[in-house]
Structures are given as C-alpha cells and as structure tokens.
Design brief:
Layout: H1 2-23, H2 30-52, H3 62-83, H4 86-93, H5 96-108, H6 114-131, H7 144-166, H8 171-197, H9 209-236, H10 239-246, H11 249-259, H12 267-287
Helix pairs in contact: 1-9, 1-10, 1-11, 2-8, 2-9, 3-4, 3-7, 3-8, 4-7, 5-7, 5-10, 6-10, 6-12, 7-9
C-alpha cells in the first residue's frame, strides 16, 4: 500500500505543480497565493480533525516544525528561481530523497536491500534527466545556494512527516499545525510586502489580492490531499523510497506541458520519463 499512497501523493503534488506553473504566468503576489494555499490546508485539516474526533496531543506539534520546513523550502526555491538559473534550482529541489535516505539510515537505521537501492537510483537518475538543462555550466551556477537550502528543507519536511508516524501523532491535528504555521509565515511576508509597497505607485495587476488568495485556496486542496497520502505512505513504507516516488510529481507537470501546452520533449526528458517509469515498476516488483 505504501507504493499506492506514494503514487497518489505524487499525482496530488503534480496537480499542485501544474497550478503553480499556470499561476507563475499570471500577474499576482506569490505570498498571497501561498498564504491562501496553506490557509485552505488548515481549514480542511481542522474540519477533518473535528469530524473524526482525533485527539490533540503534544506530538501533533511536530506539525509546526513541518510548517517551518515547508515555508523555508518554498521561500528558498522561489528566491533561487528569482536570482539564478531555474533549471539548476529545479535539479537541486528534485533531490531531497537522497538526503532523506541517508538521514533515515542514521536516525532510524532504515536499510534498503540491493533491489530497493537499485530502484531508488533508477528513479533519482530519471528525475535528474527530466530536470537537466544543457545550459548549466560551472560559470552559470547562480542560485545554487538557495537551491541547496531548499533541498535540505524539503528533506527536513519529509523526515518530519515520517517522524509523526513513528510517534503516532494524530494526522489531522498535526496537519492543522503545519498549515497554520505556513499560513502565518506567508501571511506575515504578505503584510511586509504591503508595508514596503505602501506609498509607491501601484503597478497594474490583473489579479487582485482577494482573487489570488481564493485561487490559492483551490491549490490548497491538492496540497492537503497530497500531505494526507504522503503521511500514510511514510507510515507503511521506507522513508527514502517514499520520498523518491513522491518526487516523481515533476513528471505530472511535464506531461501537462507536453499534452496541454504542446511543448516538445527533448531526448533527455524522454529518457528520464522512461527511467522513472522503470523505477516505479521495479518498486512494484520489490513490494510484491
């Protein structure tokens, strides 16, 4: 079941990525969008917690740590995109599973057998192929620092999610604390932007703050569903394998750009897709 939950999480996060990709082409405030995204997650989580009558234990506060990791990772990723090569930052943010495998071994002595490790490598190589850009050189590494920071913060979020399953933290209260923390962080950044821009001549924008926030709430539905699936996957599977499979959400975005936006696949992207699907099939064989 861990593989099914991991694939479902990848699909959910892939749909979130498609919505992020579409909004990146619009004139809107990114912090308002993400504030709405996390706010919707908090609403859904507290609603589910009340309906299911889950306990609000101290272990649920791990969600605060998850929220800080998620906020820092997203902020670092967007900063990297702003100051450096998007392709380089994309490669780095696609590799948290490498860190997760190593740390999970140190913390919880999680070991991969030979076939699991080989399948893991195939998936990681597939992700690298998909995200690789031929215009990256040693002289063109702007944004690498922000990309590396985002990599470790995304890995920290995955490891924190696994930790909640180890200590049997209640699912929805934990997610509420995560999303509430992210809402506060992005909300404060939003207010900071407004204070900074106060008195300046407003640039024309097709998206109002209200419209941006509401659309962020729509994005938040895919985000919270993805988090529910990934925590169930971590509960039943090995941390590094789940993290690697969920990282394949980039393939969903790639398929969207191919069949909806009509972008052409490069040979490198085609090879990456093939390797990623081979890796998934290997995971299925190993799990069966």
């Amino acid at each position: 079941m861990w593989l099914i939950f991991s694939v479902l999480a990848a699909v959910s996060f892939g749909l979130r990525g498609i919505l992020y990709h579409w909004t990146s082409q619009q004139s809107l405030n990114r912090n308002v969008l993400l504030c709405g995204t996390f706010f919707m997650g908090a609403l859904v989580s507290i609603g589910c917690a009340l309906i299911s009558n889950q306990e609000w234990t101290l272990s649920a506060l791990i969600g605060v740590q998850m929220g800080l990791f998620s906020f820092g990772a997203n902020a670092s990723m967007f900063k990297g995109f702003a100051v450096g090569k998007a392709s380089l930052v994309a490669i780095l943010t696609g590799l948290p599973s490498v860190v997760v495998v190593f740390v999970a071994f140190l913390l919880w002595n999680e070991r991969l057998n030979l076939w699991q490790f080989f399948a893991f490598l195939v998936i990681v190589v597939g992700i690298l192929f998909v995200r690789y850009s031929n215009d990256i050189t040693l002289k063109n590494l702007q944004g690498a620092g922000w990309g590396v920071l985002a990599l470790f913060l995304f890995a920290g979020n995955d490891l924190s999610s696994k930790w909640t399953t180890i200590v049997s933290a209640p699912l929805f209260p934990t997610l509420f604390f995560m999303f509430a923390t992210g809402t506060c962080c992005f909300g404060l950044w939003w207010l900071k932007d407004r204070a900074k821009d106060k008195g300046k001549e407003a640039a024309p924008a097709s998206w109002t703050e209200r419209r941006t926030f509401l659309f962020g709430m729509v994005v938040g539905i895919t985000n919270v569903i993805g988090m529910i699936f990934i925590i169930h996957a971590f509960d039943q599977g090995k941390t590094g394998l789940v993290s690697a499979v969920v990282a394949l959400n980039v393939l969903i975005v790639l398929l969207y750009t191919r069949f909806v936006l009509r972008d052409k696949f490069s040979k490198m992207e085609q090879s990456g897709l093939a390797l990623a699907f081979i890796g998934i099939m290997m995971m299925k064989l190993v799990a069966s």
